[in-house]
Amino acid sequence: MKLTIVTPLAIVVEQEIDSLRAEDASGSFGILSHHAPFLTSLTLSILSWRVANAERFCAVRGGVLTVADGGDIEIATREAVVGENLATLDADVLARFQSDAEEEKTEHVENVRLQLNAIRQMISRLHRSANTGEFR
Prior knowledge:
This protein is α+β, with helices and mostly antiparallel strands. It has one domain (2-130): ATP Synthase, domain 1 (Sandwich). It is 33% helix and 43% strand. It has 1 helix and 8 strands, in the order E-E-E-E-E-E-E-E-H. The chain has one helix spanning 86-130, and strands spanning 2-6, 11-16, 19-24, 27-32, 38-51, 54-67, 73-76, 80-83. Strands 1, 2, 3, 4, 5, 6, 7 and 8 form an 8-stranded mixed β-sheet that branches. Strand 3 (19-24) and strand 4 (27-32) form a beta hairpin. The chain is elongated and about 80 Å long. The chain starts with a strand and ends in a 6-residue tail after the last helix. It is a peripheral membrane protein. Produces ATP from ADP in the presence of a proton gradient across the membrane. It is found in: Cell membrane; Endomembrane system. It comes from Vreelandella neptunia.
């Protein structure tokens, strides 16, 4: 079975594997060869896969996992970092991904506030000019 992990900028992993472990909102799951077709949304997590007796890891910042009819696995994610050491990925990369996600949430909230304030100002100006018979 072939594993392909892609980001918007690069193909991060493309290799034959024996098995894969991943995590979505419902929890952790595994995929072996001849798996049924499958589609899920990944959480911010660390993927692991086996090639012969070696285990490899990749921290992903969410994404979509697809298992095709032939058992090939494709993962599209915003950001991915491959590593040999699980402790390093867990401590450094996953922590950075989580802080980036928190910053994005904060920025989103601020953008929504700005948009709502702009809408409120437009509505208040429309209400003032509605009584005067002006169009603008």
